[in-house]
TrEMBL record:
It comes from the Bacteria. Keywords: Glycosidase, Hydrolase, Signal. It holds the Pfam family Alpha_L_fucos. Residues 1-337 form the Glycoside hydrolase family 29 N-terminal domain. Belongs to the glycosyl hydrolase 29 family. Alpha-L-fucosidase is responsible for hydrolyzing the alpha-1,6-linked fucose joined to the reducing-end N-acetylglucosamine of the carbohydrate moieties of glycoproteins. SMART domains: Alpha_L_fucos. It comes from Niabella ginsengisoli. This is alpha-L-fucosidase. Its EC number is 3.2.1.51. The keyword Hydrolase applies.
Length: 442
């Protein structure tokens, strides 16, 4: 323990090997679906709409009174996630608005009191497990509805003025809210079978672990679901290695494998289709399918996982723009997922060719070259001589011939370096949005 970080409690002691084993499925699977769904899906202009527009609780209530997702079909959600190549899913059980998607006995602010009238989580976990996906929950530490949630400078609905804020917090008891969270997390981790991942959200200054009583909250989580994987947002200082399982860079692409104290650590970037987590009808900055496929490849090339978000509509379905992107990613994954599942960053000894991203499967000993632009006729692999024995285009398994000390075609002669290998490629770009060349290594 240091002045900043609490000592490792006995219940949190775990060897690196045990942690690696516990996270093996997650590290292998690489690609998950995030789902943000709640009352904010009705205004359909961002999951922070209540705060962004300072909507008074009495005005926000109309969304509660009209929540009735008659098209909700988690089997369809699960089919689309599986077809996209996703292997796990994380659903918001409660977002900052405080509305619960299950029949919690600790609040009336829940789906069973809306016109829909039924628990949403049971059918959700059943449907995704039936498609073979692992299931996780997102649970918001911030709660704009709970009467004992104490607002501070970083957690809205924070009145800006300090005096105003103190007045608004009068009578609020954070200890009661801490108890509320433990009770609800107990419901989430005992009523819905094995839960594989837990995404708490969020702390903002690396000190709130006392404010949330995070040590006892995490102790409870580990007791109820010993194999669960927990993110890094309980407010522990980053050095508190027992306080989190993986880092969560969000809505940006890290330049390299995420590190803590200079060491590579497990990481999962969570990303959106459009910039908004919740369904945002008029949002226009949707990423193209190609951008999303490249995002997945680049994430794995840096040793990370991608948790890609869908915001279902108030009716309970994935809108066309989301489904179209999931379909496009599934088409790419159908032929190229071998370069994603079980893969990670390539060893430094494999130099990255220009305009390419590399992934590597340490188990099968195969290297994957993702060509961001299809090279014209040849691709020189500097220093690869003697490192691989066969090359093929992944999507159709067609052989790629290669040679060393090669003279390229045409009237000029050009030889590759003595340790280089030249791949001889078809002029026609393969059909995959991002074609992949698979090298079977020596
Ligand atoms: O404020 C939330 C936001 O609405 C969304 O849930 C993201 C997802 O990681 N987390 C917080 C912002 O970091």
């Amino acid at each position: 323990a240091t002045a900043q970080t609490p000592a490792t409690p006995s219940w949190a002691k775990e060897t690196a090997a045990a942690k690696e084993k516990r996270m093996q499925w997650w590290t292998n699977d690489r690609f998950g679906m995030f789902i943000h769904w709640g009352l904010y899906s009705l205004p359909a202009r961002h999951e922070w709409v209540q705060m962004n527009e300072r909507i008074k609780p009495e005005d926000y209530k109309k969304y509660f009174d009209n929540f009735n997702p008659d098209l909700y079909d988690p089997k369809q959600w699960a089919k689309e996630a599986k077809a996209a190549g996703m292997k796990y899913v994380v659903l918001t059980s409660k977002h900052h608005e405080g509305f619960c998607l299950w029949d919690s006995k600790y609040t009336d602010y829940k789906v069973t009191n809306t016109p829909y009238g039924k628990d949403l989580l049971k059918d959700f976990v059943d449907a995704f497990r039936a498609e073979g996906l692992k299931v996780g929950f997102y649970y918001s530490l911030i709660d704009w509805h709970h009467p004992d949630f104490v607002m501070d400078g970083g957690h809205p609905p924070t009145p800006v003025d300090k005096e105003e804020r103190a007045k608004a917090n009068e009578g609020r008891d954070m200890k009661k809210y801490q108890e509320y969270m433990k009770n609800q997390v107990t419901e989430l981790l005992t009523k819905f079978g094995k839960i594989d991942q837990l995404f708490f959200d969020f702390s903002y200054n690396g000190k709130e672990y006392k404010e949330w009583d995070s040590e006892n909250l995490l102790k409870l989580v580990r007791k109820l679901q010993p194999d669960i994987i927990v993110n890094d947002r309980l407010g522990f200082p980053v050095e508190t290695s027992w306080g989190w399982d993986y880092k969560t860079p969000e809505q940006f692409m890290p330049k390299e494998w995420v590190k803590v104290n200079g060491q590579n650590v497990p990481w999962e970037t969570c990303q959106t289709f459009s910039g908004s987590w919740g369904y945002y009808r008029d949002e226009y900055s949707w990423k193209s399918p190609e951008q999303l496929i490249v995002m997945l490849i680049e994430t794995v090339s840096k040793g990370g996982n991608l948790l890609l978000n869908v915001g279902p509509t108030a009716r309970g379905h994935f809108d066309e723009r989301a489904s179209d992107r999931l379909t496009a990613m599934g088409k790419w994954m159908k032929f190229n997922s071998r370069s994603i599942y079980g893969c990670t960053e390539a060893p430094e000894s494999f130099k990255k060719p220009a305009n390419c991203l590399l992934t590597y499967n340490p188990t099968t000993k195969r290297l994957y070259i993702h060509a961001m632009q299809w090279p014209f006729k040849t691709l020189t692999l500097e220093g690869y001589k003697g490192k691989f024995k066969y090359a093929q285009i992944l999507e159709d398994g067609s052989e790629i011939k290669f040679s060393t000390n090669t003279r390229s075609g045409g009237h000029t002669t050009e030889t590759s370096g003595e340790n280089d290998v030249m791949l001889h490629l078809p002029v026609r770009k393969p059909g995959s949005t991002i074609p992949v060349i698979e090298l079977i290594l020596e």
